[in-house]
Here is the input.
Amino acid sequence: MWSEAQVWCSPERHGQITGIMKLQVDHLPLSLGGMRPTQGRTLAVMQVSAGSQSFNSVNTLRVLGRWMRMVTIPNQSSVAKAFNEFDDAGRMKPSSYYDRIVDVMEELVRFTVLLRPHTAQLVDRYSERKEAGVPINAATDLSSIAIASFDHPSI
Here is the structure.
């Protein structure tokens, strides 16, 4: 509830995200006391692989983020042969993979700042207003076109 943005990173295991990562996402509630904890938040997706570079996990994370009504940024990172990319102290070595992760994080911050003033619009949903019994103001509500009557001249 307190985050404006999130970073999801999963190892790729047998061509997919790990069961633990899926379990974590499954435990994020779609709705919590009338609030949607992930809706409208920005999301960056990344993956690490033990073998060759692939994008299976980031593609799955992107789909899951969309399902959670998050705004997933266009950039992403996939680190192949991750066991070669860290030093003995556990820090990532300088490389093009490292540079890409920094690029992704910068883009996440930019998108989060750009979307911040529009969060209320991004999470305002017709179906939820309808369910709550909020009257539709045809002058200001974009959904009013769905209930408007149109007089079309015969052709």
